[in-house]
Amino acid sequence: MLIEMKKLFTVLFLFVSFHCLAQTDSLQVVKRVGNMGVNKPLSIEYGGNPEHQGHSEVGTIISIRKGPVHVVGARFIINKISLPDTTVFTLNIYEVKDGKPTANGLYRPVKITGAVKEGQLNVDLTGYNIIMSDDFMLALSWSSGRGSISFGGGMHGGRSFHRNDNQEWERAPMKLGFSALIAVTHPNSP
Known about the structure:
This protein is mainly β. 11% of the residues lie in helices and 51% in strands. The strands form 2 sheets. Strands 1, 2, 4, 8, 9, 11, 14 and 15 form an 8-stranded antiparallel β-sheet that branches. Strands 3, 5, 6, 7, 10, 12 and 13 form a 7-stranded antiparallel β-sheet that branches.
């Protein structure tokens, strides 16, 4: 039942996003980019340390062939989670230079509150008007004090990175199951 509800939510989200975006003078095509799939058999776990109350952050490079694009959604594959239900996640989008993340491209943080569960975490970004012209990194950060989280991953796809407490980014040992839903605008033919 839960899987059917997630599929229904995803289809409804795509339909509403496409319908809202298609009401303009140009045709906008909505598509998913990044490390795709609805589940990933491999996991990379990030565990907390009760003596460390900092933040952990992980992200995946999202390649776009031709910009600008409107980022309207994000999906994160979570294989296992034991973080407190009060954990607040922050979604960030970083600019990419020479294949590495640089400056945060968001003018305001995207906070994700409420209990995050195993499976697909879908985030609606239509209200944030995020426009990207080049490749970017889709990232998720959280307080790393207690508990752990395992993200689905694989060996193929966009490069993934991780860091603690805003230190230097390091390459993750595998590609994380993060993807973005983007709208690409094509002018209508007269």
